[in-house]
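Most newcomers find our protein records easier to grasp once they have seen one. The structure tokens are whole numbers drawn from a learned vocabulary of backbone shapes. The record below serves as our worked example for the rest of this section.
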Amino acid sequence: MNDDDPTPDDADDWVRLPGDDDTDRVDVVDDSPGEGRSTGADDHQDEATKPSGWLTTMLAHPTRVVLSAVVIGAIVAGGIALALGVFNDSGSVGGTDIGENERIAQNAFTKSVTGDCLDWPAGDPGNPSKVGCDQKHRFEVAGPLDTAVLPGSEFGESAVWPGTERFAAIRDEQCPVIVDQYLDGRLDPQGRFSVGMMYPSQVQWDKGARELRCGVQQTGKDGAPEQFVGRVADQDQSFQWPAGTCIGIDRATKKPTGTTVNCTEAHAFQTTGTVSLAPRFGDRLSGKPWPAAQQQNDYLQSICPVQANRFLGGKNKLDATTLNVQWSVLSEPSWLAGSRTVVCYLGLPDGGGFATLVGDARSTLLINGKLPVPPPAAPPGRALPTPVPLPPGVEPNPIETPAPAG
């Protein structure tokens, strides 16, 4: 590289983010191995057509959603979310500007070992730094991926850059085992973390970079890795969305996307809060057996409706929304992984999925484009509450049984 070559501030030593066509930058893909790029297991698939683990469970038990991660990619996502899959293009190894043929410079990524936690400025995985896992970070290294298990010619010095699809395939083939061993089999398949991999961009590859790292990440909106605190093995991996959070919807399938959106945008449901099952069924260190779904439902049916009333400001306001009170339950694998938190939320069954909501349930709300029609007041002295009707044009979902409304 000569004096006229671009500097790292505006050239090939920087990360190429999703949608960036600059092939001279470093990539991070959730589902692919590499230096400075992470990929999620689901990154190479159509996110609009492939539901994540928790979405699949939601379809089977719509009124009691079992949340799972579809992160930036199943591997480094991706995440998790798994898959709500997805750590796309976010993590790269820095390069040197000494010479055009100079090999890649060592940095926090290339020096990382099992158990290290890496962080970088949002959108700039090309500048990773090692931090304490008790600080905010975006990637926890489960271990290096030994390229010796891959075709020798594929990672040779003169080999052509494999490309994102191949890296994603390598991630899916190799990283789950590495992460499973690292976490002793305790990655919640329906939680907020997912398996991912970091790999080099083409520019870094051409300079000799061959480092691959498998790890765990928490994927946020648009597949970008979010910061989190603490080691994954030491915490509750459940989704823990704050009250009032709205979760997006795929209008074509009527299924939740698993990502948070502004409530003024189309969404499938709005959370009213979370509930810890630990006080009732035992914390993650108690060794107590998984409570069956019915046990969880029996416990939550007396909690989530009360929580919804408090969130909206009273039962009358809840009835006026015509929404159902619903909640998630934990699967046995999630329980064994140490997850203990479930989510209470407001939604409405519609044709095997969810009706499309726009607006905050506490103010102006549209259901499938229409204002909800509140039910008539119950006659004086009536012991039973007035059933909450479905909005005009919305048919009951035969798969779902609305959770108790109060």
The CA atoms of residues 322 and 390 lie 7 Å apart. Confidence is low (pLDDT under 50) at residues 1-37, 41-103, 383-387, 394-406. The chain is about 15% helix and 20% strand. The helical segments are 53-60, 164-182, 202-206, 278-281, 293-300, 304-312, 315-321, 332-336.
